[in-house]
Amino acid sequence: MLDDIIIDKLLLKRSADIKVTDDEVKAQWERIKGNFGSEEELKKQVEAAGETLDKVKQGLHDRLAEEHWIDEQVKDKVTVSDADAEAFYKKNPDAFHSPEQVRASHILVAVGKDAKPEEVAVKQKAAQDIAARVKKGEDFAKLAKELSEDPSAKQNSGDLDFFTQDKMVPEFSKAAFAMKKDEISDPVRSDFGFHVIKVTDRKDAETVTLEKAKPQLLAYLKQQKKQAEIQKVVEDIRAKADVKINLPEPPAPPAGAVPAPPPAK
To answer: Model confidence over 110-123: pLDDT tens digits?
Structure first.
């Protein structure tokens, strides 16, 4: 913590003459305000932390100045080439392989793991009835909102988005990946209960080509290199700084105090 404070002071001193526009500070302020919903709520949280809005805005100004100063120090050192991208691509093939994916929705009829056979039978019949209604043309999303016992169904209408085989329980994945698009399953039993599944989309396994990945890959490598150069700048100014730490000495024990016994071995 002390070292972070020292580095911040050093950066603040070096960036003192860097110009930061009011528009830059305002843009940062609006972004932060958006995280709180309103300026009133932001003010409430700031004051609860013992700060003021003016002090926070000054802090934003200082941080922007530091960032501009650092960017100036590293701007000529942050370059990456197509050769760098190709080398990374060849060294990390798994990062560019996308496995097969399925998008599915489900309606869950929940059944406890220790449910008695008669309860399981009732739940299975309920799931079969739901599957029959969907196969006859009733709207899957509407039924999921009304009937699914998955708590998220009220918000997502049963939609689980795209997932790979390892992201779902085995029984669910096995059924979903065996289905065709728009197909409706019979009830599938898992530890959670009975699922009525509808596959809404599929993506085949794919290996992203170097050419397709290159723009994003170059941006990633550039950011990685920038962070490394920033670390070098910070370490350099810290090593060269003449820093005096004026922390108070710990209080001396009162006269006649008995020293604490050594810890037991």
So the answer is: 998 889 999 999 99
